[in-house]
Amino acid sequence: MKKKTKKEKVDHWGARLKSILTEKHIPLREVARICNTSPSVVSGWINKGNSPTDLMAIKILADELEVSFSWLLTGSYDKGTEAPSLTEVFEEQTWFDGYARIRIDKLIPKKK
Looking at domain 6-76, does it have CATH number 1.10.260.40? Predict the structure, then answer.
């Protein structure tokens, strides 16, 4: 049996799932409810990289988490699609409403 390298261990689909759940503050029990499975199965996905047996449940989960199904399982996007744009990922929030002037200076190291 092939010994897992550090990269293989970190790059399994469960690691991507864990990062999304951490970012969105979603508990394992909620994932289990969405996928109609037990929390121990979800824990196996995250901690051991176990493969899911019900891909439709994972598709529903990906839709619920607002991530690409292909990216969640494989780490790559579907052919013809790319990473989402900033407007798809972030909400716009107005910090200042009124007139303003913005100046951007290029910083160049001083010559000695």
Answer: yes
27: left (phi over 0), alpha (psi -120 to 50) or beta: beta
Assigned token pair, 34? 């969405």
Domain ranges of the chain: 6-76
Of 96, 67, 105, 60, the closest CA to residue 52 belongs to: 60
Each residue's pLDDT tens digit, 9-67: 447 888 888 988 988 899 999 999 999 999 999 999 888 878 888 889 889 999 998 88
Alpha-carbon torsion 44, 49, 55, 61, what sign? positive
Contact predicate 72/13, CB 8 Å: yes
